[in-house]
Amino acid sequence: MSSRVLAADLPRHVGARVRVAGWVHRRRRLKSVTFVVVRDRSGLAQVVLQGAAPPEETVVEVQATVTANPRAPGGVELTSPVVRTLAEAVQPPPFPLYRPEVDASLPTILDHAPVALRHPALRARFALSAAAVRGFRSTLDRLGFTETHTPKIVASATESGANVFGIEYFGRRAYLAQSPQFFKQALVGVFERVYEVGPVFRAEPHDTARHLAQYTSLDAELGFIRDHRDVMAVLREVLAGMAAGLVTVPEEIPEIHFADALKLLGAPPDEPDLAPAHERRLSAWARREHGSEFLFVTGYPMAKRPFYTHPDPARPGYSNSFDLLFRGLELVTGGQRLHRHADYLAVLGDDAPAYRDYLAAFAHGMPPHGGFAIGLERWTARLLGAANVREATLFPRDLHRLTP
Amino acid sequence: MSSRVLAADLPRHVGARVRVAGWVHRRRRLKSVTFVVVRDRSGLAQVVLQGAAPPEETVVEVQATVTANPRAPGGVELTSPVVRTLAEAVQPPPFPLYRPEVDASLPTILDHAPVALRHPALRARFALSAAAVRGFRSTLDRLGFTETHTPKIVASATESGANVFGIEYFGRRAYLAQSPQFFKQALVGVFERVYEVGPVFRAEPHDTARHLAQYTSLDAELGFIRDHRDVMAVLREVLAGMAAGLVTVPEEIPEIHFADALKLLGAPPDEPDLAPAHERRLSAWARREHGSEFLFVTGYPMAKRPFYTHPDPARPGYSNSFDLLFRGLELVTGGQRLHRHADYLAVLGDDAPAYRDYLAAFAHGMPPHGGFAIGLERWTARLLGAANVREATLFPRDLHRLTP
């Protein structure tokens, strides 16, 4: 018997005897025959069986004849089958995997992820996520970026201080990295343009639909920029590569300065940040006025940005940074960073010694640079219209969830 | 002034006025002029300057005329330059970055990684590493694999028990994952074929040239295999994609059974494992007899393999697993796994309850499957002929090293 044929390829084998393999997705018993739908990574195949069929999720190999049948899914079905069980399903699934809709609550799905994710609609989310990462990388590869892998175990919690996980590290105290920020900046000094796809860790004590203890961060950083607009231009390219035809990324993503955004919203001019309701209203405005699902808000007040943020030379108090809003929510944060050693010493003041390793790169000459970070799960959830970021996470980790 | 031109592209601009930017790589003062070599991500450019030049590693922008000069590197040099400093280098590098050889010890390189890695020879290692990862992914994408991202924080240390890092996780105890093994197996049930590129963590108390506390694991797992040979065939494809012309991967990697290897070595037939000296001798044999730098050793005794290893149905006591030796060292471990729920219950016995989440996938039907894991740093070090795996790690983490 020749090699395995995938379900999606069966129409090219009409009349032939083939071998397919997969899971029993569904059984339907009629008077004289049983229709068994077999699921593999490519799709579904209908097998016409005499007599009883094994239960759902049994792993089977089927040798059979490919027969045209316009009423069968895909226009073919498998007849005269010989079915061999490769592995038994000793328990029924926690909810029916064959129904088009997912008939289970989010906790049920997450508790039973190893089997729940087999549902074609759940599985498809993560195929989308994989395509987004592929688009992120291929865009940046094309633009001359180098992929890097940096430590997830760090010596100090200096970047943000709070919300870090502590580790016992050979009798010392260490921490899980909250972002590759410091490393990717140092690596601009080596490669000019770098990216990393990897886990980041946040000991978020918040039990919300948006927070995870681990998520996948898509980080990029580039040198020899004029200002944050060069970073925004690269981000626009990256998003177009990640969208995979599911959403239109305009050639020019509209942009509004933070101060103008407050005016538009009728908010007090000294508001230091945007509230979620503000972000939703700004997104609606961008859709209405510019026909865009994306909006850059630039020039956030320095007071609310991290210490390495580059100020706007023309408007002290405001920064060369941006947030990208997508469908009413902040999706990406980025901007230009400080690059002169003296500027870092000035902003860090007495804290400078604690940042010794970080400052080393700047002591040896660093170009004007900037970057951004995209949360993969948040991006996928937003593309899918999912309310909870856990719906776009294979095995979420949060305040309450450490398994499966 | 038009946009920046990279050093490597200068020969296409002879006669034109251009803008380049980069680091002062080297200064050479002659009687009347100074030759300044500027380094950017593409290569080097020679600038002919009247008068003094800024110190090495200063970040500069140079506007100048591209002039043909057969004696200059690349056949061109930059004349009539206007040099602008973008950022000062306030300290000299820990060792000269412009010498072709790296004139520094490994500890010096690692202590000063943010600047040391700028040395073109050191930087090149990580371009090679990035190319290897790209080859790993593109091969598996072509073969229908799906990329996944799995938790690095896990609830129990069940896979190997020892050498795990403990984490304080919201008042509970958790651990850093030593491998994505259990997750990738479960995901074979979802996608059939999966891979992951990500950090793994080993609390190795060994201070050797081979051990890191964090390394980048290239993991793959595939379902619907006949046995471990289908896994070896995929691995062979992957290696060919990763080799990037630096080493020849034979169409058929030679293979020797563990029992035959012991005979060849004149070792007692009850040896449970291969010693490093054995691996070196077997590699030499493969090169001599088969002209191959790679050798599969198959059929390792079950006693020395993890509990999920599939036995060889024809030779009890031996397994359907393999190691891949490359230039005298073990580079990859892989094999077929158990896939029947009952087989797992049998090997785990009373420990089965501790593996509840892992066993869930098998209770719901799992196909015959197997996989492998490649340590990225080890692969790169071996390709480079580097004696220490730290030479292929940007910022190593080990027993003694937690910074930079």
TrEMBL record, chains A, B:
Compartmental location: Cytoplasm
GO MF annotation: an example: aspartate-tRNA(Asn) ligase activity
Record keyword Cytoplasm present: yes
Alphabetically ordered keywords of this record: Aminoacyl-tRNA synthetase, ATP-binding, Cytoplasm, Ligase, Nucleotide-binding, Protein biosynthesis
Main location: cytoplasm
Primary enzyme class: ligase
Annotated Aminoacyl-transfer RNA synthetases class-II family profile domain residues: 128-404
InterPro entries linked: Aa-tRNA-synt_II, aa-tRNA-synth_II, aa-tRNA-synth_II/BPL/LPL, Asp-tRNA_synthase_2, Asp/Asn-tRNA-synth_IIb, NA-bd_OB-fold, NA-bd_OB_tRNA
Site positions per UniProt: Important for tRNA non-discrimination: P73
EC number(s) from the headed UniProt entry: 6.1.1.23
Catalytic function, reaction form: tRNA(Asx) + L-aspartate + ATP = L-aspartyl-tRNA(Asx) + AMP + diphosphate
Residues the record lists as binding L-aspartate: E159, R202, T333, R337
Keyword Cytoplasm: yes
Pfam family membership, one: tRNA-synt_2
Residues covered by region (Aspartate): 181-184
Entry-linked Gene3D superfamilies: Bira Bifunctional Protein, Domain 2, Nucleic acid-binding proteins
Binding site for ATP: R202, A203, E204, R210, H211, L212, E330, G375, L376, E377, R378
Recorded family membership: Belongs to the class-II aminoacyl-tRNA synthetase family. Type 2 subfamily.
PANTHER family named in the record: ASPARTATE--TRNA LIGASE, CYTOPLASMIC, ASPARTYL-TRNA SYNTHETASE
Function: Aspartyl-tRNA synthetase with relaxed tRNA specificity since it is able to aspartylate not only its cognate tRNA(Asp) but also tRNA(Asn). Reaction proceeds in two steps: L-aspartate is first activated by ATP to form Asp-AMP and then transferred to the acceptor end of tRNA(Asp/Asn).
Known partners and oligomeric status: Homodimer.
Full protein name: Aspartate--tRNA(Asp/Asn) ligase
